[in-house]
Design brief:
The chain is mainly β. It has one helix and 15 strands; from the N terminus they run αβββββββββββββββ. Strands 1, 2, 3, 4, 5, 6 and 7 form a seven-stranded mixed beta sheet that branches. Strands 11-8-14-15 form a four-stranded mixed beta sheet, with no helix packed on it. Strands 10-9-12-13 form a four-stranded antiparallel beta sheet, with no helix packed on it. Strand 1 and strand 2 form a beta hairpin.
Length: 246
């Protein structure tokens, strides 16, 4: 009788072990491919997949143009971490959590790492004819200091005398606007971008008009707008011209 009980117990344990092995190897899997196109200047970056440095052209640290393709398998119920680090300081700049359900969101990964700002967007310098000025805008930290919940703002670009040069209906956080082009008129006169709530002439934050003084260069201008606090007051700056890096 004791032998019979022992045999039944052994068979039960063996069956459980077999089921555990089958469960371990029966997990659904999905191939993931991430096409990376990035740029960093002057910082040297490092990509890491699940903590392991990614080699690009034989190097595990890189600057200027950064392009590669990663291919790996994602298990259902598990997460793969793709991280971007400043190789010189060790600071983490960005982290992407890729899992079985969201692989399509990471087929293409674009980023630009510039002094004081990290943009997760795709950008191409627009073609602007000789004697013309072109402007594009992006507002990645919209709401950081103003507390605004808007996802985009309206921008009206004007000369000092109030003449309207161009209007931008939706300046958002994630992508540059379409380019607007006008005739070049001065190497020294600034232009001003007034910022409003979409579809209105109401300041996007607070009661006072928000104006951004911008230097115009002949050709393409890709301006990164940034909310900042100066003496406790909200201001918006447009000092970074993305076109200088392309």
């Amino acid at each position: 009788m004791k032998k019979l009980i022992a045999l039944i117990l052994l068979a039960t344990l063996s069956s459980c072990a077999d089921n555990t092995v089958m469960e371990r190897y029966d997990k659904a899997q999905k191939p993931a491919t991430v096409n990376i196109k990035g740029y960093s200047k002057p910082d040297v970056l490092q990509l890491r997949l699940n903590g392991l440095p990614v080699s690009i052209n034989g190097s595990t640290s890189y600057t200027d143009k950064i392009e590669t393709q990663l291919s790996f398998v994602v298990d259902e119920g598990e997460t793969d971490d793709l991280e971007i680090y400043n190789h010189q300081t060790g600071a983490q700049i960005a982290r992407y959590k890729i899992n079985y359900d969201n692989t399509d969101q990471y087929k293409n990964l674009y980023f630009f790492n510039l002094p004081g700002i990290f943009l997760q967007t795709y950008a191409v310098k627009p073609q602007v004819n000789l004697g013309k000025v072109g402007f594009e805008f992006i507002f990645p930290n919209l709401g950081e200091y103003s507390g605004s919940t808007l996802q985009n703002v309206k921008g009206v670009l004007k000369r000092e005398n109030g003449v309207i040069l161009a209007e931008f209906e939706n300046i958002g956080k994630d992508n540059f606007t379409a380019v607007k082009i006008y005739n070049y008129f001065s190497a020294t006169a600034p232009v001003y971008l007034e910022l409003y709530k979409p579809g209105t002439l109401e300041p996007y934050s607070g009661p006072n008009l928000i104006k951004v003084k911008i230097k115009q260069d002949i050709g393409a201008n890709m301006i990164v707008l940034q909310e900042k606090l100066e003496n406790g007051q909200l201001v918006v700056k447009g000092e970074i011209d993305f076109a200088d890096y392309l």
